[in-house]
């Protein structure tokens, strides 16, 4: 099953229990973490940070949410092992037993600032960076992978009309999948200066990722990727024999699917191309400093410069107010779509990824317009405001969009409102979900979605650093 099927299998929208568990009636904020013996990975540095930050949070429910959400990836999704005597870490998304390059990177990004002080945490990063390199070498166009590299997909994606290989769980080509692996490698390197995972295998995977970006500029033909799926939703398949909509080849990288795993309407996904520019520059730094490979670094920087020039020429559109914003998707012919999707990279999420300076006026205008009725996937309800996307349907707000909005803001009132929304809409689960209904947070999708939990944890850490007085309030 893919993400959409997981939701459909349990009913597209889950409904939380109307009454609290009687055992929790006396204390509704009992930890929902697994027992210590059942946790996948325990990090002393993470546990110390939980205690230190919780002590600063006056609101008991917010403190409880932080305790549940922040360690969720380590508690529940990491499978540790060794391959050829080296660490291996397989990180699932939560309720889907497969590794997404994007999700696994984003989930572990939550803890990278602590890796320098915790050997157990470093082992997870070393294992994941190595595992991602092996996955890319299996198929650089795949977005998700099986734990066993020789296994056929356990999802219905096994029936997709594409070049499915053993070890691949799903083969949706998404530029951001490879960008996330570059960002994770860079974040780990800058936090630790540990060369351990950056061996010849990793270098081969990195080279293949850069080559895939070049192939998907499609300057010399359509390239090797094609994808079709028999599905009633048009967001699950591609037109023209699986190649996607037509484009003018201008130097941008084609992305057939968005970070939501939904098909692009126009194949030049601007947030992902912006992410590619920053990720290639990050990768160049790792090549230079961790491996002393100046040639590989130059190749990354050259491609980044080419894509940046194409973005400057083709990635913007009028904002209707006399200025310009980044488009969401373009085709190189002058056609553009403005919208935003909650999944990151998004127009709102560019600064979070390092793909834009948070004070850049172009980014600020783009994010502000995305957080408005100009975006068809911006929803306003009695429970909250936020951004969703086609993946789970109309009126469903993704908590990660609220987290990103708070991270973008320097306004205490905005951050305070976002914290209130997040506290009020967890539907009694004690965790962030994939999405909830704008008027009824008891209706939600995916109660075990580790990426969203990690982002919430990062928000609390960010507030503790930038706006500590807010944590002394109750929401």
Summarize the main sheet. Answer: 4 strands, antiparallel
- Helix fraction, binned, reads 40-55%
Whole-number mean pLDDT: 94
Tell me the Rg in angstroms: 21 Å
Instruction: Give the amount of beta strand, in percent.
Output: 5-15%
Identify low-pLDDT runs: 1-25
Q: Structural class of the secondary structure composition?
A: alpha+beta
Form type = globular
Number of helices: 15
Q: How many E strands? A: 16
With strands numbered from the N-terminus, the spatial order across the biggest sheet is 1-16-15-14
Q: Could you give the distance between the termini?
A: 38 Å
How would you describe what is shown here?
This protein is of the alpha+beta class and 475 residues long. Helix content is 41%, strand content 11%. The chain has helices at 3-9, 44-54, 60-69, 72-76, 101-109, 119-138, 175-192, 200-215, 270-291, 294-314, 350-353, 361-370, 399-408, 412-424, 450-466, and strands at 14-15, 78-83, 86-91, 99-100, 144-145, 168-170, 268-269, 316-318, 324-326, 329-330, 336-337, 378-380, 385-387, 396-397, 435-437, 440-445. The strands form six sheets. The chain has a four-stranded antiparallel sheet, with no helix packed on it. Helix 5 (101-109) runs parallel beside helix 7 (175-192), helix 6 runs antiparallel to helix 7 (175-192) and helix 6 crosses helix 8. It is globular, with a radius of gyration of 21 Å. The model is unreliable at 1-25 (pLDDT under 50).
């Amino acid at each position: 099953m893919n993400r959409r099927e997981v939701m459909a299998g349990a009913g597209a929208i889950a409904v939380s229990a109307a009454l609290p568990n009687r055992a929790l009636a006396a204390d509704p904020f009992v930890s929902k973490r697994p027992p210590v013996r059942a946790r996948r990975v325990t990090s002393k540095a993470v546990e110390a940070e939980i205690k230190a930050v919780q002590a600063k949070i006056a609101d008991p429910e917010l403190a409880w949410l932080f305790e549940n959400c922040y360690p969720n990836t380590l508690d529940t999704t990491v499978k540790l092992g060794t391959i050829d005597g080296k660490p291996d870490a397989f990180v699932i998304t939560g309720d889907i037993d497969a590794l997404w390059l994007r999700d696994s990177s984003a989930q572990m990004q939550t803890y990278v600032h602590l890796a320098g002080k915790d050997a157990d945490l470093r082992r997870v990063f070393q294992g994941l960076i190595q595992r991602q390199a092996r996955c890319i070498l299996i198929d650089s166009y795949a977005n998700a992978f099986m734990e066993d590299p020789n296994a056929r997909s356990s999802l219905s994606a096994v029936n997709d009309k594409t070049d499915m290989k053993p070890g691949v769980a799903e083969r949706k080509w998404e530029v951001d999948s490879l960008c996330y692996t570059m960002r994770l490698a860079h974040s780990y390197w800058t936090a630790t200066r540990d060369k351990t995972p950056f061996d010849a295998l990793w270098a081969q995977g990195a080279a293949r990722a850069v080559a895939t970006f070049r192939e998907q500029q499609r300057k010399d033909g359509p390239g090797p990727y094609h994808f079709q799926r028999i599905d009633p939703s048009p967001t699950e398949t591609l037109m023209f024999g699986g190649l996607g909509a037509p484009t003018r080849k201008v130097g941008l990288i084609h992305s057939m699917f968005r970070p939501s795993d939904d098909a692009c309407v126009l194949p030049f996904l601007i947030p992902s191309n912006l992410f590619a520019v920053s990720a290639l520059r990050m990768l160049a730094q790792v090549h230079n400093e961790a491996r002393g490979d100046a040639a590989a670094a130059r190749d990354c920087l050259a491609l980044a410069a080419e894509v940046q020039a194409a973005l400057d020429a083709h990635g913007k559109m009028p904002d209707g107010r006399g200025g310009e914003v980044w488009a969401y998707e373009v085709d190189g012919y002058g056609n553009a779509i403005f919208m935003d999707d909650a999944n990151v990279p998004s127009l709102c999420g560019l600064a979070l990824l390092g793909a834009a300076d948070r004070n850049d006026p172009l980014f600020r205008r783009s994010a502000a317009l995305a957080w408005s009725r100009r975006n068809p996937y911006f929803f306003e309800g009695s429970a909250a405001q936020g951004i969703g996307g086609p993946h789970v349907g109309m009126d469903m707000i993704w908590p990660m969009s609220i987290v990103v909005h708070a991270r973008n803001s320097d306004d205490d009132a905005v951050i305070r409102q976002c914290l209130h929304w997040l506290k009020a809409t967890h539907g009694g689960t004690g965790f962030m979900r994939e999405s909830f209904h704008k008027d009824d947070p008891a209706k939600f999708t995916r109660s075990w979605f580790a990426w969203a939990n990690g982002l919430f944890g990062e928000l609390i850490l960010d507030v503790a650093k930038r706006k500590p007085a807010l944590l002394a309030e109750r929401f």
